Amino acid sequence: MKHLIANWKMNFINSDAWLKDFDLNNIPKEIKVVICPNYLEIEDFYEISSKTHEKILIGAQNLSSETKGAFTGQISGKMLKNIGASYSIVGHSECRLQGEDDETILNKVQTAIECELIPILCIGENQEEYSKGRTEKKIKHQLTENLFPLKNLSKSVLIAYEPIYAIGSGIAVQNEHLEEVSLLIKDLVRDNLGIDLTLIYGGSVTSDSAKNLAKIDGIDGFLVGNASLDPKEFANIALSLE
Ligand code: PGA
After folding, report:
1. Domain range spanning residue 151?
2. b/e map 6-23, b = 16+ CB within 10 Å
3. Which residues does a 6 A CB cutoff place in the pocket of ligand 1?
């Protein structure tokens, strides 16, 4: 199933204005469009969009690895589900940089599923790992630590391959590299879990680069940061996924 996901990060977006300029009419029906606002905006965005843009689904940018209790400052997946979220990003490199470790990320994927949220697990190598030819090792490590211990997984998990050096940098990753890594991820998941998961790509995707990226074998959609802040640009990205 093709997915187009917006990660608004910690940006100030006026949901009303954004939705007014976001035209769903030209977006193919089979593409799932998911918007991930900041926690505080999820409820409002859900309420507004469910009246005007029924097709839009809502995601959170993160969640707690626990479902409830004495965890100051944390947000439970159940709380997110209650206010309209049906997805959650997990293990984004910006969260890993702030100290999220592999065990926490594994727990978050599991907790998201328990809370009936579809986890969008982000994985990818950094610049140094790429230059030293260690991409495959890193991908295997992250899948082994963050996903494979979960047995009986259904298809309700998404993987976002996001090479860290491509995020927010405008760097275009080579098509051959992307295709190679996408097929590697799909093969590893099939071999270890016996399922075919949806794999999306993230890292400086724009309506321009999307045309080329959408042709790559193994890529079923995009996780878009910066370019999703502009509703017209984001809608144009969807067109390349037809
Ligand atoms: P970007 O962000 O599109 O701005 O590179 C992508 C992401 O961080 O998920």
Report:
1. 2-239
2. bbbbeeebebeebbeebe
3. 7, 162, 167-168, 202-205, 223-227
